[in-house]
């Protein structure tokens, strides 16, 4: 599970064709986050997509793809829309500022560079970015269980599918359903049902701790776990592992024959290339979950990617 945005170190990307300018700006902001750099617009675009920085310092005048075009290209990526871009430029005047704001920048730093100004502007926009990330994070949490919600799941699986297309690898998905949950609610009442949901959610979330993994409440008594770089064999074992973990909770469920709360699990994994979308992965895991429930519950079934 990734650290909350407000808790991790800020990532600052400098895009400038001048090594001396990169060294100077890096020196100014070296204690404000991890500093990365690229020496062209094309390289900066690729680095930004891979890095997902918290702030980009972009030279406005570069050969080839200049700063304005680079900024426009950056803002075409959904994952970079909320990343603030500050232009560094020797030009002054309304026309340049209007063009920069139109391209998607949030601020300007004029040359020659002043360390107090650079640090103040960077600090301000990192703070605003962190505050925005915190608000977005809160909007992505399920109020009942305290884990991520369906909106967060939808955004993350789309992001991971895009990332796995850029760097080929197998993306794993797990969908979990609490067995006979309606009978649980009818027997114990809805307050006990809510407590059961929270306990199962905590257990699932506690076992999604590797980088990039995310557990979410998918809807009702269903949960989902996204597992990057996970093979079909690994995702199947993970599903079996979750069944054991929930079984180990030994939550009483006297309304069914098992006597305790159990889960059914559907899993799928595949490389999200052009012919395999995140929706196909989801449909495969969902169909596998249906088979697990139809096959007696308290088990895991694996979906196929066609």
Automatic annotation (TrEMBL):
EC number: 2.7.7.65
A molecular function GO annotation: diguanylate cyclase activity
Secretion signal, residue range per the UniProt entry: none
Residue span(s) of domain Response regulatory: 11-126
Residues with the 4-aspartylphosphate modification: 59
Catalysed transformations (reactions): 2 GTP = 3',3'-c-di-GMP + 2 diphosphate
Superkingdom of source: Bacteria
GGDEF domain boundaries: 169-305
Keywords, comma-separated and alphabetical: Nucleotidyltransferase, Phosphoprotein, Transferase
Gene3D superfamilies: 3.30.70.270, 3.40.50.2300
SUPFAM superfamilies tied to this protein: CheY-like (SSF52172), Nucleotide cyclase (SSF55073)
NCBIfam families tied to this protein: GGDEF (TIGR00254)
Protein name as it appears in the record: diguanylate cyclase
Lineage: Bacteria, Pseudomonadati, Pseudomonadota, Betaproteobacteria, Rhodocyclales
